[in-house]
Amino acid sequence: MIRSIFLVLCFLPGFALADLPQRMMCNGQNPAWTLRIEDDTAVLNHLIKTQMNLMLSTVAKGQLTPVALTFVGDRDTAIVVVHDRICGTAPYEAQVLTQRGQTPILLTGCCEVTK
């Protein structure tokens, strides 16, 4: 039973990401931040630079978007909610939920596809 659940969870990230690019650069202002997503890793740069691994991706129930990407690093975590809608001149809008110590932080911005 546990093995079956593990196998299902292993395939979820790739399945949910099927409609999103595997490589994106997201950023926002006030406060300034960047998030580079490459395949199953991400580097968040807000106050400090943190590398994280993709643990889970989830599509909104009954919808194609938004997609929530859960990243976990050695000290920090981030849930990135990506919407398939125009954001300024970028094709995607994103919200990043993270923290600094015990303080929750919500960052908003836009994402471009990178190569």
Account of the 3D structure:
It is a single chain. With 115 residues, the protein is mostly beta strands. The chain has one helix and eight strands; from the N terminus they run αββββββββ. Strands 1-2-3-4-5-6-7-8 form an eight-stranded antiparallel β-barrel. β6 and β7 form a beta hairpin. The longest helix has 15 residues.
Query: What distance lies between the first and last C-alpha atoms, to the nearest angstrom?
Result: 39 Å
Cα-based radius of gyration, to the nearest Å: 14 Å
Q: Count the DSSP helices.
A: 1
Subunit organisation of the chains = single chain
Beta fraction = over 45%
Listing every helix as H and every strand as E from the N terminus to the C terminus, the arrangement reads HEEEEEEEE
In terms of per-residue confidence, which ranges show pLDDT below 50 for 5 or more consecutive residues?
A: 1-18
Shape: globular
Number of separate strands: 8
Q: Please give the order of strands in the largest beta sheet.
A: 1-2-3-4-5-6-7-8
**Major sheet description:** 8 strands, antiparallel, barrel
- In round numbers, the mean pLDDT is 85
Estimate percent helicity.
Answer: 10-25%
Structural class: mainly beta
In short:
With 115 residues, the protein is mainly beta. Helices cover 13% and strands 56% of the residues. The chain is built from 1 helix and 8 strands.
Pick out its properties.
115 residues; 1 helix; 8 strands; disordered N terminus; mainly beta; eight-stranded antiparallel beta barrel
